[in-house]
Amino acid sequence: MKRLLGKRGEHHYDPQTVLYLTGNINYCYLHMANGAVILSCRTLKWFADQWPTFLRVHKKTLINQAYISSCKPAENSRDTNYIVMADQTQIEIARRRAPSVLSILAQRQLANQ
Q1: Read out DSSP for 21-83?
Q2: Which of 32, 79, 94, 110 could form a disulfide with 74 if both were Cys (CB 3.0 to 4.6 A apart)?
Q3: Is 93 helix (H, G, I), strand (E, B) or coil?
Q4: What is the predicted pLDDT for the residue at 111?
Q5: What is the pTM of this model?
Q6: Record keywords: Transcription included (predicted)?
């Protein structure tokens, strides 16, 4: 894991080693590709501004698009859409964000073909 130590003991992580981030009030948990979970005193908004390639799929979740394994779309309007990450974690897509997130994922899939 690449971790750089900055001034005042701040850690800087390589975004390519982060699978996804989950927010908890003013803190974040960074879920790393090697399985480690790191607590950060930064907010999800701060990480979203710093790492624009990450996708906000829920109020509490920011994901690295490079580690998306698959997408489980809802069967009907009452079901929940999920994204499956490389570590097999299922991440819920917020109902209001679902149309934009699913269109981004569809465009990404078309670009990869």
Answers
A1: EEEETTEEEEEETTS-EEEESS-HHHHHHH-TTEEEEETTEEEEGGGEEEEE--SSTTSPEEE
A2: 79
A3: strand
A4: 80
A5: 0.84
A6: no
Structure tokens that stand for 2 in this block: 């690449």
Do 53 and 64 meet the contact criterion of CB atoms below 8 Å apart? yes
* Residue with token string 């927010």: 23
101-110 core/surface letters (b: 16 or more CB in 10 A; e: else): bbeebeeeee
pLDDT mean across residues, the chain:
87
- Give me the domains of the chain, ranges plus CATH numbers: 3-112 (2.40.50.1020)
